[in-house]
Amino acid sequence: MGQHLAVGVIGSFAVWRSGIILDGTEVGSRKARLLLALLAVERRRWAPIDRVIDVLWGDAPPRRPAQNAATVVSRLRAAFGPAIVVGGRAGYRLGEHVAVDLHDAAGLVELAEAEASDDLALLSARRALELLDQGGVLDGWPDREVKWAEPARGLQAALARRARHTMAEAALRLGDPRTAAEAAETALAIDAFDEVACRMLMRARSAAGEPARALLAYERLRSTLAVELGADPAAQTRDLHIAILNGWPASAPVDAGRH
After folding, report:
1. Higher-scoring residue by pLDDT: 1, 236
2. How far apart (Å, rounded) are the C-alpha atoms in residues 206 and 234?
3. 78 and 160 belong to one structural domain
4. Domain boundary among 50, 66, 97
Protein backbone atom coordinates (compact mmCIF):
# COMPACT_ATOMS: atom_id res chain seq x y z
CA MET A 1 0.00 0.00 0.00
CA GLY A 2 3.08 2.24 0.12
CA GLN A 3 2.28 3.37 3.67
CA HIS A 4 4.54 3.15 6.67
CA LEU A 5 3.09 0.94 9.40
CA ALA A 6 4.24 0.83 13.00
CA VAL A 7 2.97 -1.15 15.96
CA GLY A 8 3.46 -0.03 19.55
CA VAL A 9 3.45 -2.68 22.25
CA ILE A 10 5.15 -0.64 25.01
CA GLY A 11 2.46 0.99 27.12
CA SER A 12 -0.91 0.97 25.40
CA PHE A 13 -1.16 -1.08 22.21
CA ALA A 14 -1.26 1.22 19.19
CA VAL A 15 -0.98 1.11 15.42
CA TRP A 16 0.24 3.99 13.26
CA ARG A 17 -0.21 4.32 9.52
CA SER A 18 1.93 6.98 7.86
CA GLY A 19 2.45 8.60 11.26
CA ILE A 20 -1.24 8.76 12.16
CA ILE A 21 -2.48 6.71 15.09
CA LEU A 22 -5.50 4.55 14.30
CA ASP A 23 -8.41 3.90 16.60
CA GLY A 24 -9.44 0.36 17.46
CA THR A 25 -12.13 0.08 14.82
CA GLU A 26 -9.66 1.04 12.09
CA VAL A 27 -7.29 -1.71 13.21
CA GLY A 28 -10.00 -4.36 13.37
CA SER A 29 -11.68 -6.67 15.84
CA ARG A 30 -10.33 -7.54 19.28
CA LYS A 31 -9.00 -10.79 17.80
CA ALA A 32 -7.27 -8.88 15.01
CA ARG A 33 -5.60 -6.54 17.49
CA LEU A 34 -4.58 -9.47 19.68
CA LEU A 35 -3.03 -11.30 16.72
CA LEU A 36 -1.21 -8.17 15.60
CA ALA A 37 0.12 -7.69 19.14
CA LEU A 38 1.35 -11.30 19.24
CA LEU A 39 3.14 -11.01 15.91
CA ALA A 40 4.63 -7.65 16.90
CA VAL A 41 6.04 -9.14 20.10
CA GLU A 42 7.44 -12.10 18.16
CA ARG A 43 8.72 -9.71 15.49
CA ARG A 44 10.52 -11.78 12.83
CA ARG A 45 9.91 -15.19 14.41
CA TRP A 46 7.15 -17.41 13.14
CA ALA A 47 4.20 -17.94 15.44
CA PRO A 48 3.06 -21.55 14.84
CA ILE A 49 -0.63 -21.95 14.20
CA ASP A 50 -1.14 -23.81 17.49
CA ARG A 51 0.24 -20.81 19.37
CA VAL A 52 -1.91 -18.40 17.39
CA ILE A 53 -4.99 -20.44 18.22
CA ASP A 54 -4.08 -20.59 21.91
CA VAL A 55 -3.56 -16.82 22.08
CA LEU A 56 -6.77 -15.99 20.23
CA TRP A 57 -9.12 -18.47 21.89
CA GLY A 58 -7.38 -20.11 24.85
CA ASP A 59 -9.25 -23.14 26.16
CA ALA A 60 -12.33 -22.49 24.04
CA PRO A 61 -11.27 -22.60 20.37
CA PRO A 62 -13.90 -22.59 17.60
CA ARG A 63 -14.72 -25.74 15.64
CA ARG A 64 -12.29 -24.84 12.85
CA PRO A 65 -9.64 -22.74 14.61
CA ALA A 66 -7.06 -22.65 11.80
CA GLN A 67 -9.70 -21.45 9.35
CA ASN A 68 -10.90 -18.84 11.81
CA ALA A 69 -7.32 -17.63 12.35
CA ALA A 70 -6.91 -17.35 8.58
CA THR A 71 -10.05 -15.19 8.48
CA VAL A 72 -8.57 -12.84 11.08
CA VAL A 73 -5.36 -12.60 9.01
CA SER A 74 -7.36 -11.99 5.86
CA ARG A 75 -9.12 -9.04 7.47
CA LEU A 76 -5.81 -7.55 8.60
CA ARG A 77 -4.47 -7.90 5.07
CA ALA A 78 -7.58 -6.25 3.66
CA ALA A 79 -7.10 -3.31 6.03
CA PHE A 80 -3.33 -2.88 5.73
CA GLY A 81 -2.19 -4.68 2.61
CA PRO A 82 -1.21 -8.29 1.92
CA ALA A 83 2.34 -7.89 3.27
CA ILE A 84 1.37 -6.96 6.82
CA VAL A 85 1.21 -10.65 7.80
CA VAL A 86 3.29 -13.34 6.10
CA GLY A 87 2.50 -17.04 6.19
CA GLY A 88 -0.40 -19.44 5.99
CA ARG A 89 -2.02 -22.31 7.79
CA ALA A 90 1.24 -23.51 9.41
CA GLY A 91 1.90 -20.16 11.11
CA TYR A 92 2.36 -16.44 10.66
CA ARG A 93 4.81 -13.62 11.22
CA LEU A 94 4.76 -9.85 10.86
CA GLY A 95 5.77 -8.34 7.54
CA GLU A 96 9.32 -7.02 7.19
CA HIS A 97 8.18 -3.45 6.58
CA VAL A 98 6.26 -3.08 9.86
CA ALA A 99 8.14 -1.26 12.63
CA VAL A 100 7.71 -2.29 16.28
CA ASP A 101 8.73 0.03 19.12
CA LEU A 102 10.17 -2.72 21.34
CA HIS A 103 12.42 -3.98 18.58
CA ASP A 104 13.36 -0.48 17.46
CA ALA A 105 14.52 0.07 21.05
CA ALA A 106 16.56 -3.15 20.91
CA GLY A 107 18.31 -1.87 17.80
CA LEU A 108 19.10 1.43 19.49
CA VAL A 109 20.57 -0.33 22.53
CA GLU A 110 22.76 -2.50 20.31
CA LEU A 111 23.84 0.60 18.40
CA ALA A 112 24.67 2.41 21.64
CA GLU A 113 26.76 -0.50 22.91
CA ALA A 114 28.69 -0.76 19.64
CA GLU A 115 29.11 2.97 19.01
CA ALA A 116 32.71 4.22 19.05
CA SER A 117 31.62 7.79 19.78
CA ASP A 118 30.54 8.41 23.38
CA ASP A 119 28.30 11.29 22.27
CA LEU A 120 26.44 9.05 19.83
CA ALA A 121 26.33 6.20 22.34
CA LEU A 122 24.70 8.53 24.86
CA LEU A 123 22.23 9.76 22.24
CA SER A 124 21.25 6.24 21.14
CA ALA A 125 20.81 5.08 24.74
CA ARG A 126 18.59 8.09 25.48
CA ARG A 127 16.46 7.41 22.42
CA ALA A 128 16.09 3.76 23.43
CA LEU A 129 14.96 4.75 26.93
CA GLU A 130 12.44 7.21 25.50
CA LEU A 131 10.75 4.20 23.92
CA LEU A 132 11.30 1.71 26.74
CA ASP A 133 10.06 3.99 29.53
CA GLN A 134 6.60 4.51 28.03
CA GLY A 135 5.14 1.75 30.21
CA GLY A 136 5.06 -2.02 30.35
CA VAL A 137 4.47 -4.30 27.39
CA LEU A 138 0.76 -4.28 26.54
CA ASP A 139 -0.28 -2.28 29.58
CA GLY A 140 -4.02 -2.15 30.04
CA TRP A 141 -4.72 -5.62 28.67
CA PRO A 142 -5.76 -8.29 31.18
CA ASP A 143 -2.81 -10.43 32.25
CA ARG A 144 -4.76 -13.61 31.53
CA GLU A 145 -5.15 -12.48 27.93
CA VAL A 146 -1.50 -11.59 27.34
CA LYS A 147 0.37 -13.97 29.63
CA TRP A 148 2.37 -14.93 26.55
CA ALA A 149 3.91 -11.43 26.63
CA GLU A 150 6.01 -12.15 29.75
CA PRO A 151 9.20 -12.89 27.74
CA ALA A 152 8.76 -9.53 25.96
CA ARG A 153 8.43 -7.81 29.34
CA GLY A 154 11.66 -9.48 30.40
CA LEU A 155 13.31 -8.28 27.19
CA GLN A 156 12.10 -4.74 27.85
CA ALA A 157 13.59 -4.77 31.36
CA ALA A 158 16.90 -6.17 30.13
CA LEU A 159 17.11 -3.59 27.34
CA ALA A 160 16.41 -0.72 29.74
CA ARG A 161 19.12 -1.99 32.09
CA ARG A 162 21.65 -2.23 29.24
CA ALA A 163 20.67 1.23 27.98
CA ARG A 164 21.21 2.79 31.41
CA HIS A 165 24.55 1.04 31.85
CA THR A 166 25.73 2.27 28.46
CA MET A 167 24.38 5.75 29.14
CA ALA A 168 26.23 5.94 32.47
CA GLU A 169 29.47 4.64 30.97
CA ALA A 170 29.36 7.08 28.05
CA ALA A 171 28.58 9.98 30.38
CA LEU A 172 31.52 9.07 32.62
CA ARG A 173 33.82 9.02 29.59
CA LEU A 174 32.49 12.42 28.55
CA GLY A 175 33.15 13.91 31.98
CA ASP A 176 29.45 14.21 32.84
CA PRO A 177 29.12 12.53 36.27
CA ARG A 178 25.67 14.01 36.90
CA THR A 179 24.13 12.23 33.91
CA ALA A 180 26.02 9.05 34.79
CA ALA A 181 24.73 9.17 38.37
CA GLU A 182 21.13 9.73 37.23
CA ALA A 183 21.24 6.72 34.91
CA ALA A 184 22.91 4.51 37.53
CA GLU A 185 20.54 5.57 40.32
CA THR A 186 17.53 4.79 38.16
CA ALA A 187 18.93 1.34 37.36
CA LEU A 188 19.52 0.69 41.08
CA ALA A 189 16.03 1.88 41.98
CA ILE A 190 14.66 -0.77 39.62
CA ASP A 191 17.10 -3.50 40.69
CA ALA A 192 18.83 -3.04 44.04
CA PHE A 193 21.18 -5.95 43.20
CA ASP A 194 22.57 -4.30 40.05
CA GLU A 195 26.28 -4.16 40.91
CA VAL A 196 27.29 -2.74 37.55
CA ALA A 197 25.00 0.23 38.18
CA CYS A 198 26.34 0.57 41.72
CA ARG A 199 29.93 0.70 40.49
CA MET A 200 28.99 3.34 37.93
CA LEU A 201 27.21 5.35 40.61
CA MET A 202 30.27 5.11 42.85
CA ARG A 203 32.52 6.25 40.01
CA ALA A 204 30.15 9.11 39.16
CA ARG A 205 29.99 10.33 42.76
CA SER A 206 33.77 10.10 43.08
CA ALA A 207 34.27 11.98 39.80
CA ALA A 208 31.90 14.69 41.06
CA GLY A 209 34.03 15.14 44.18
CA GLU A 210 31.50 13.38 46.42
CA PRO A 211 33.38 10.37 47.83
CA ALA A 212 31.09 10.12 50.86
CA ARG A 213 28.08 9.57 48.59
CA ALA A 214 30.07 7.01 46.61
CA LEU A 215 30.83 5.09 49.82
CA LEU A 216 27.18 5.33 50.87
CA ALA A 217 26.13 3.72 47.58
CA TYR A 218 28.52 0.85 48.28
CA GLU A 219 27.23 0.42 51.83
CA ARG A 220 23.62 0.24 50.62
CA LEU A 221 24.56 -2.47 48.13
CA ARG A 222 26.64 -4.39 50.67
CA SER A 223 23.79 -4.33 53.20
CA THR A 224 21.19 -5.38 50.61
CA LEU A 225 23.29 -8.31 49.43
CA ALA A 226 24.05 -9.43 52.99
CA VAL A 227 20.44 -9.27 54.19
CA GLU A 228 18.71 -10.61 51.09
CA LEU A 229 21.25 -13.10 49.73
CA GLY A 230 23.81 -13.66 52.46
CA ALA A 231 26.48 -12.58 49.96
CA ASP A 232 29.21 -9.96 49.60
CA PRO A 233 29.73 -7.54 46.72
CA ALA A 234 31.88 -8.79 43.86
CA ALA A 235 35.64 -8.34 44.04
CA GLN A 236 35.50 -5.61 41.40
CA THR A 237 33.03 -3.64 43.54
CA ARG A 238 35.10 -4.14 46.70
CA ASP A 239 38.25 -3.00 44.90
CA LEU A 240 36.50 0.16 43.77
CA HIS A 241 35.33 0.77 47.34
CA ILE A 242 38.92 0.50 48.61
CA ALA A 243 40.16 2.84 45.89
CA ILE A 244 37.65 5.51 46.90
CA LEU A 245 38.42 5.03 50.61
CA ASN A 246 42.09 5.66 49.88
CA GLY A 247 41.45 8.61 47.59
CA TRP A 248 42.76 6.82 44.54
CA PRO A 249 41.26 7.46 41.06
CA ALA A 250 38.04 5.48 40.78
CA SER A 251 38.80 4.33 37.24
CA ALA A 252 37.11 0.93 37.30
CA PRO A 253 37.26 -1.22 34.15
CA VAL A 254 34.54 -0.73 31.59
CA ASP A 255 31.37 -2.49 32.76
CA ALA A 256 28.93 -2.10 29.89
CA GLY A 257 28.97 -4.11 26.71
CA ARG A 258 30.50 -1.42 24.49
CA HIS A 259 34.19 -1.60 23.49
Report:
1. 236
2. 19
3. no
4. 97
pLDDT of residue 256: 46
Domain that holds residue 166: 101-245
Q: What is the pLDDT of residues 181-222, one digit of tens each?
A: 999 999 999 999 999 999 999 999 999 999 999 999 999 999
**Is the separation of the CB atoms in 183 and 171 below 8 Å?**
yes
pLDDT recorded at residue 24: 81
Q: What is the CATH number of the domain that holds 31?
A: 1.10.10.10
Give me the phi and psi of 160, to 5 degrees please: -65, -40
The confidence band for 2, taking pLDDT boundaries of 50, 70 and 90, is very low
Instruction: List own/partner pairs for 133-139 with CB under 8 A and 24 or more apart.
Output: 133/160, 134/8, 134/10, 134/11, 134/101, 135/10, 135/11, 135/12, 136/10, 136/11, 137/9, 137/10, 137/41, 137/102, 138/9, 138/13, 138/37, 138/41, 139/11, 139/12
Asked which of 65, 97, 129 is the last residue of a domain, the reply is 97
Number of structural domains in the chain: 2
Could you tell me the strand order of the sheet in which 14-17 lies? 20-21, 14-17, 5-8, 99-100
